[in-house]
């Protein structure tokens, strides 16, 4: 069931309704997954990489949803800011400053000069990077932090090296706070917490008694974008860098290493998108889902259109020497060379994005969620803005957290309300068959 809307709907297991406050009910009986979104206090937000596709989309969402915020965009040059304003005129409401993200001192000066309450780091790609200058500066200046990291070693390094420092400084920090990873993690966490009965009657976190709830067995993330999703050369760089990484998945509770862009699976993303082939990539939500949501088996796959792009990436992973795919300089040049051609194809195939999150429970039950949006860049911006809302409201605890950890989001329903703004379809906590493109009922049985 779908509804076109301008703001995100409130969603139940069987119906979609216009957004409105939700009556309190025990989660074991209730299926409503949303609460109405709420304002943020007057604060100052700095978006590093704010003139790029992801950063400018995030800034645009913050300007539209929270006009009381002060906003500063930071990047390497004023020319990039003028170009961003040309693409998105609303960004003229933001201030601009230059910054060198390789220098913690440069970032600290930026945060001190602006009096920032929150810094959002969107200056990727994060693959092969050990540069934590932005996170270090945020902790040193006691500024809230969010990044859109989609790299497993970078995210794990942030947790390992800065968790205790952020706690001691009283700094809330969320890593991998984009759409995937990001919103997808929260979708999975919400499904799993409902199954485990980890919410009380007011949707606050609780520890279930022994024997309560159902445990997850297998978590599958599946993602699709049309073309590059209109996200610019950075997503191309990310894709090429990921083509050089072995893939971590979990099977029977054990880590398994597989080749990149392998093990194709066909996934139905529902009406409007249909069935698409998706392939294994090394994404941080796999490790975090296993470690922090305690799911034994986890995998993440991605696919795109036109389908030849998937074959091109498959060949890249197998024919281009791994040493070159690990060379950020080579990959940057390779992406720049490919970008004009990819942009022309994007004009034909569009920028749609779809995510499907499937959780198989112990005992055979399945609960799933689906997210479909016409524009990846817009949905990315709203996803990151929804994480910012939590930090600015004081609903993220000090420390470094993945999106699915309870410390990251005090209110997952509020997050989902804002993150799904503009979706053509958003369903959560549904049986897998209910999300299919074509469902046929014959003789009392359902086939798909």
UniProtKB/TrEMBL annotation:
InterPro entries: NAD(P)-bd_dom_sf, Sacchrp_dh_NADP-bd
Residue span, Saccharopine dehydrogenase NADP binding domain: 45-174
Superkingdom as given in the UniProt entry: Eukaryota
One Pfam family cited in the UniProt record for this chain: Sacchrp_dh_NADP
PANTHER family in UniProt: CARBOXYNORSPERMIDINE SYNTHASE
Protein name, UniProt field: Saccharopine dehydrogenase NADP binding domain-containing protein
Source organism (scientific name): Gonium pectorale (Green alga)
């Amino acid at each position: 069931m779908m509804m076109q809307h301008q703001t995100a709907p409130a969603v139940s297991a069987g119906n979609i309704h216009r957004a409105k406050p939700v009556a309190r009910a025990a989660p074991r009986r209730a299926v409503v997954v949303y609460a109405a979104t709420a304002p943020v206090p007057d604060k100052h937000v700095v978006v590093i990489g704010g003139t790029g596709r992801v950063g400018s989309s995030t800034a645009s969402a913050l300007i539209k949803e929270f006009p009381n915020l002060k906003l500063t965009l930071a990047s390497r040059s004023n020319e990039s800011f003028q170009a961003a304003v040309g693409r998105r005129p609303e960004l003229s409401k933001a201030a601009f400053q230059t910054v060198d993200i390789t220098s913690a001192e440069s970032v600290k000066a930026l945060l001190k000069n602006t009096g920032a309450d929150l810094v959002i780091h969107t200056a990727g790609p994060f693959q092969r990077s050990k540069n934590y200058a932005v996170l270090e500066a945020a902790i040193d200046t006691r500024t809230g932090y969010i990044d859109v990291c989609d790299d497993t070693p970078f995210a794990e390094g942030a947790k390992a090296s800065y968790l205790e420092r952020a706690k001691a400084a009283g700094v809330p920090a969320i890593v991998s706070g984009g759409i995937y990873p990001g919103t997808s993690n929260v979708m999975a966490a919400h499904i799993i917490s409902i199954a485990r009965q980890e919410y009380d009657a007011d949707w606050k976190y609780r520890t279930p008694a022994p024997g309560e709830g159902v445990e997850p067995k297998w978590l599958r993330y599946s993602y699709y974008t049309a073309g590059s999703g209109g996200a610019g050369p950075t997503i191309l760089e990310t894709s090429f860098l990921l083509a050089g990484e072995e893939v971590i998945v979990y099977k029977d509770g054990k880590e398994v290493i597989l080749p990149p862009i392998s093990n194709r699976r066909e996934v139905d993303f529902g009406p409007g998108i249909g069935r698409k082939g998706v392939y294994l990539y090394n994404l941080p939500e796999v490790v975090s889902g296993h470690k922090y949501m305690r799911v034994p088996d986890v995998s993440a796959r991605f696919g795109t259109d036109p389908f030849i792009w998937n074959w091109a990436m498959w060949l890249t992973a197998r024919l281009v020497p791994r040493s070159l795919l690990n060379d950020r300089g080579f990959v940057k040049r390779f992406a720049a060379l490919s970008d004009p051609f990819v942009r022309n194809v994007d004009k034909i195939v569009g920028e749609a994005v779809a995510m499907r999150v499937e959780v198989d429970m112990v005992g055979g039950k399945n609960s799933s969620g689906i997210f479909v949006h016409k524009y990846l860049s817009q949905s990315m911006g709203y996803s990151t803005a929804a994480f910012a809302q939590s930090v600015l409201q004081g609903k993220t605890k000090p420390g470094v957290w993945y999106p699915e950890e309870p410390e990251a989001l005090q209110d997952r329903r509020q997050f989902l309300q804002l993150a799904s703004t503009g979706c053509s379809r958003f369903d959560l906590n549904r049986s897998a068959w209910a999300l299919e493109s074509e469902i046929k009922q014959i003789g009392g049985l359902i086939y798909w």
